[in-house]
Amino acid sequence: MTDSFDVIIIGAGPGGYVCALRAAQLGLKVACVEKRATLGGTCLNIGCIPSKALLQSSENYTAAIHDFADHGVEVGDVRLDLERMMARKGEVVTANVKGVEFLFRKNKVTWLKGAGRIAAAGRVEVDGTPYETKSIVIATGSESMPLPGIDVDEKQVVTSTGGLELDRVPGHLAVIGGGYIGLELGSVWRRLGAEVTVIEFLDRLVPSMDAEIARAFERVLGKQGIKFRLGTKVTAARRGNDGVTLTVEPAKGGEAEEITADVVLLAIGRRAWTDGLGLAEAGVETDERGRVRTDGHYATNVAGIYAIGDVIAGPMLAHKAEEEGIALAEILAGQAGHVNYGAIPGVVYTWPEVASVGRTEDELKAAGVAYSVGKFPFTANARARAMGDTDGFVKILADKATDRVLGAHIIGPDAGTLIAELVTAMEFGASAEDVARTCHAHPSLNEAVKEAALAVEGRAIHI
Ligand SMILES: Cc1cc2nc3c(=O)[nH]c(=O)nc-3n(C[C@H](O)[C@H](O)[C@H](O)COP(=O)(O)OP(=O)(O)OC[C@H]3O[C@@H](n4cnc5c(N)ncnc54)[C@H](O)[C@@H]3O)c2cc1C
Questions:
Q1: Which residues, judged by CB distance below 6 Å to any ligand atom, belong to the binding site of ligand 1?
Q2: pLDDT value, residue 43
Q3: Which residues have a Cβ under 8 Å from the Cβ of 25 and sit 6 or more positions away?
Q4: Residue whose CA is closest, atom 8 of ligand 1?
Q5: Nearest CA to ligand 1 atom 20
Q6: CA dist., res. 71 & res. 88, Å (int)
Q7: Residue 220 has what pLDDT?
Q8: How far is ligand 1, taken at its centre, from the CA of residue 198, in Å?
Q9: Were 329 and a residue from 23, 342, 383, 414 both cysteine, which residue would form a disulfide, CB within 3.0 to 4.6 Å?
């Protein structure tokens, strides 16, 4: 007899596994199909988690070389043990993926191991074995975007997957793409001693970021030794015995030149991953970028088939996928799941970190919204000075008429944690004054958030 479920989720990344856990909490009989040997998807295996492990380790290394002495801590010769650093990264990943396996067992979610294919609404095959289900959730995520003329071998020309696995520090790493993945991994290898050149088609970094923050970000990464070739496109890569030669030319057209590097990291973005899913046969519509098309409740055009996470439209972020997983599980259980897309934070985990939520100044201008700006620099924050981390500032954008917080942008120490306060404020429809009148502990980095909120009305205290 064919096994049957209330819901079968294909893909166990943060979208799929969180959807599975929430649906099980709500009493549904759930299976999750995953073809990778471990659960957790891109995020836990080859994305968020290993990259953050290497960012932390490389940060510790560079702090020991450059910053400890200033604090009066003498450490003598600092040496890099890359093998140990990579082994630790592996341990962090293992602890996380095993954690998801434990949660599946605890919540009685069945892991169907293998590749899932939609045979029809209500029927999923896993490596040929059929299963029946009331609902199907596509949560198959994304993969690195290829670039014509650039062949990836994951040794000399790598995607982020190979970029997290290099067995030696390259003399020169060329990063194609100035988005968050390229800048995070570029930072890792720069800190470990590589010369790093970031080649970006646009004339700025991270296009979704507030332009003023992006300029400050470029300056601060430049001070760390990362070189930028903005407004530049890569047209070819030639692999040789001792490196890769890239042909580049100005994005607007012009004379071509060559850049040689030991390793090239291709990080120009990611695209929805639907290979072998049987979408066309099942009649599931995709959009012009290959993403599964869904309505506001994650339903595809085929009754009983839903999709969430990187495989649908929206920012390709783990927490966005998780929120969608929870909302959909609740909808499937008859509740009113919902995601507020106006308050999804985005963080770049370099040092300093960059974090944002809501609208940028350019977006507000384009929408014709009148706004006020409040800014506060970390040079005037006592805790940042005590830490020795004074690069950056907090910027809050509030509606000119109502004072409601419309966007917040931070470059600075622990910006990724600081932004949570402003995400909460936006979720509650707070005004800048609400944040400004909230008591913040002293001395804390969060005081810079309070001061920026005060600055919206020109009444910051410490500047
Ligand atoms: C280097 C890097 C760093 C990142 N850092 C961050 C970060 O710091 N913060 C952040 O928010 N986001 C980060 N991301 C993005 C984040 O990883 C994704 O947004 C997130 O993983 C998307 O979750 P998902 O569940 O939609 O898909 P995924 O995590 O991609 O999971 C999909 C799963 O589906 C499986 N699958 C696919 N097809 C099938 C099939 N037919 N049958 C069975 N299984 C299948 C895949 O094997 C995969 O395990 C990073 C990504 C990368 C590459």
A1: 10-16, 33-36, 41-43, 47-48, 51, 115-116, 139-142, 160, 181, 273, 276-277, 309-311, 316-319, 321, 349
A2: 98
A3: 107, 329
A4: 48
A5: 318
A6: 27
A7: 97
A8: 24
A9: 23
- Selecting among 66, 338, 442, 462, the annotated active-site residue is 442
- pLDDT one-digit tens code per residue, 361-378: 999 999 999 999 999 999
260-265 average pLDDT score: 98
End-to-end CA distance of the chain: 73
Q: Name the residue with the closest Cα to ligand 1, atom 30.
A: 141
pLDDT digits (tens, 9 = 90+) for 178-199: 999 999 999 999 999 999 999 9
% of the chain at pLDDT higher than 70: 100
pLDDT above 90 (res 241): no
The residue-averaged pLDDT of 143-170 equals: 96
Structure tokens at 99: 């954690």
Which DSSP string corresponds to 1-69? ---EEEEEEE--SHHHHHHHHHHHHTT--EEEEE-SSSSSHHHHHHSHHHHHHHHHHHHHHHHHHHTGG
Q: Which of 89, 92, 140, 161 to mutate to test the pocket of ligand 1 (most atoms within 8 A of CB)?
A: 140
Query: Using an 8 Å Cβ cutoff, are 232 and 201 in contact?
Result: yes
CA angle 204, 404, 398 (to 5 degrees): 35
pLDDT of 1 > 80? The answer is: no
Q: Residue 241: CB partners within 8 Å, gap ≥ 6?
A: none
The predicted pLDDT at position 149 comes to: 87
Is 319 marked active-site? Answer: no
pLDDT at 203 over 80: yes
Average pLDDT, rounded, for the chain: 97
Structure tokens at 83: 């093998």
Distance 448 CA to ligand 1 centre (A): 33
Instruction: List Cβ neighbours of 31 (8 Å cut-off, separation of 6 or more).
Output: 3, 5, 7, 8, 9, 20, 109, 110, 111, 112, 131, 133
The residue to mutate among 17, 42, 265, having the most atoms of ligand 1 within 8 angstroms of its beta carbon, is 42
Q: Among 10, 21, 43, 356, which residue has the most ligand 1 atoms within 8 Å of its CB, making it the best to mutate? A: 43
Amino acid 437: pLDDT:
98
Cα-to-centroid distance, 27 and ligand 1 (Å):
26
